[in-house]
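Session log. Operator J.P. requested a structure for one protein chain; no other inputs attached. Running the standard single-chain path with token output.
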Amino acid sequence: YAFTRDRRGAPSTCYGDCAEAWPVYFRQAPLTAGNGVKASLIGTTRRKDGRLQVTYNGRPLYSYAHEGLGEVKCQNVFGFGGLWLVARPDGTLVR
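Structure written below.
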């Protein structure tokens, strides 16, 4: 998911309770693009603690704490001051 309160190319605004509900995708190893993903759109942004959060098309990425693998329960949900939207392979957000 991407959070509309986060601006493209800027660090995350999701911390505390927000980051508990919407866990951050942290960079664990060299980033590689899977099927349908554009490698040129993958990047990182530095969080306040210095760790690197994965971005796609300049937007910080998150999961939702109450979803299993392959589930999408929170598309277009408003919370913590913005909308949570799925990112498409071309980098745009599903509205």
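Operator note: The beta strands are 2-3, 42-46, 52-56, 59-60, 77-79, 82-85.
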